[in-house]
Amino acid sequence: MAFALRDLGVRIEVVEEELFPERECKTEAEAEAIRVGNRAAAAGFRAVERILRGAKIEGRRLRHNGRVVTSEYVQRAIGVACLEKGAVATQPIVAGGDQACDPHCRGNGPLRPHELIIVDIFPRVMKTGYHGDMTRTYLKGHPSEAQKALYETVFTAEQWALGEHRSRKSGAGIYDGVVKRFEDAGYRTGRDNGVPVGFIHGLGHGLGLDVHEAPRVNRKGSRLRSGQVITVEPGLYYPGLGGVRVEDVVRVTGKGPEMLSKHPYRWRIR
According to DSSP H, which parts of the chain are helical? Predict the structure, then answer.
């Protein structure tokens, strides 16, 4: 399109930053639309929890209503729950065990008892086009001490980072604070046999009409501005142990974060 316009004599200038930078800061109405999206995500989590609570442990499998519990089975339940709230949840992540150690793996096949399961739901509200984006981690059965420690480390880092999201705070500084917390707890980031392990992604991103918008909160993150809506989603991933990610959404203000997501953090389901 750009080349065709140029050939017609139109002067073209390439913009290297966001095409619509005004989208970065949300109005009250936009913030409410995102809050509605996260209510749909919360309905999805409730559906997940109902399945896991009702599931029976049979050896290395879970069975619910006579069916083996798979990632696909849970993903369908999430889709129905979000639709009932007026939102479409495309490609929710339900990944257990080592699958959860790849943050972009949707998950497939049977979910195992006593393994960590990451559930990431980012529905789009049909009426407004705005998204929610939340993540919770679950375990059906009995966690090991190592799994408990991993979850507690990620959860406490997320709660700390949520409180740091206020205007003029350095995004890179918040990210570095999470990295330090993980390292102080003994969780290193690097590669094992060529596989990335530890805290292998950014801390958060903007959310709105797209699931991923400006700004980014990572090692190069800029200072935060009032009105930005940002996910806060630290995670740790170690094949053989599993992965944990916990994610909420905040709107940045001068007084501190305004929470745009709400759902309990109960992760152990017997």
Answer: 2-7, 28-54, 71-84, 145-164, 171-184
C-alpha of 187 from chain center: 20
- Beta strands 116-121 and 124-125 are unpaired
Q: Are 199 and 153 in contact (CB under 8 A)?
A: no
Q: Which residues are bridge partners to 228 per DSSP?
A: 25
Tokens 């709400």, residue located: 262
Domain extents for the chain? Answer: 23-269
The whole-angstrom separation of Cα 98 and Cα 150 is 14
Question: For residue 182, what are the CA distances in angstroms to 108, 126, 149, 155?
Answer: 29, 38, 11, 11
Tell me how far apart the alpha carbons of residues 235 and 246 are, in angstroms, rounded to a whole number: 7
Fold of domain 23-269: Creatine Amidinohydrolase (3.90.230)
- CB of 217 within 8 A of CB of 207? no
> Which among 186, 158, 176 is positioned nearest to 245, based on CA atoms?
158
C-beta atoms surrounding 163 within 10 Å: 12
d(CA 169, CA 232): 14
Are residues 178 and 170 in contact, defined by beta-carbon separation less than 8 angstroms? no
- Cα torsion for 119, 199, 34, 44, to the nearest 10°? 10
Compute the distance between CA of residue 123 and CA of residue 106 in angstroms, rounded to an integer: 15
> Cα 160 from chain centroid?
16
Read off the pTM: 0.93
**60 contacts 101 by C-beta, under 8 angstroms:** no
Query: How many whole angstroms from its chain centre is CA 269?
Result: 20
Residues listed for the chain: 270
Residues 221-240 have pLDDT tens digits of 999 999 999 999 999 999 99
pLDDT one-digit tens code per residue, 139-151: 999 999 999 999 9
